[in-house]
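Continued from yesterday's entry.
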Amino acid sequence: MAGTFGAIDAFLDDYIELPVPCRGGEVRPYRIEDPAAEDGIRIERITSLAARLAAGGTAPESPVLDDDEERDLYRMCLGDQYEPLLAETSWSMFKHVALTVMFWVTMDIETAQKFWEAGLTPGKAPNREARRRVSRGSSASAAASTTQSPASTSGTRAESQRRSKGKGKARS
């Protein structure tokens, strides 16, 4: 017995829209369409090669992609938004947008969103807000986990020394 399927466009995203900070401080929405099937296959092949190299734990002897291949990867990911993004954004933002789209194409929208919101570009430090969030969270939890409660000093030598120091200061 054959099953009935719903229309595939009901659950597949055919574009991703990103609010991209451009030069001059303006944030513009960029709508990036799902790549053509042949480009999607090439993107998958390139990223699976990179994943295999990363899983091996050793750095490749030579770059995985030369400059032209890297540009082609970004052009395949960004489609007709490649040129406008190249002209209107910084290099790190351009690369971040392209890699976000690559995660969308090769994984899913949730993975792309996590990457986008992390604000990470390979070779760059996390953005200031992310660093603050991490440092606040880690310092508070580190302090909570490493700070010990003071032990009772009632009747100990240390307590009597503190008392006598305090009395001496009060008399002066």
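--- second protein ---
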Amino acid sequence: MTTNQSQNQKFTRPEAAAYIGVAPRTMANWHSTGRVKIPFYKIGRKKTIYLKSDLDAYLASVRQPA
């Protein structure tokens, strides 16, 4: 897999939640309240897709210096 392909890797909400270390319900709450803004794609009524690059950007934004 090339770097571009790995950055465009797609995750479902449970996969994305596991990737960043939170519960899927937490991500759903963040979305509904607007507390944390991670870009996503809504597919149909129930399916939500997150890009790995967006999740990585979120993780970088909350990183605390040592």
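Strands lie at 10-12, 41-43, 47-51. The two ends are 32 Å apart (CA to CA). Will compare against the first tomorrow.
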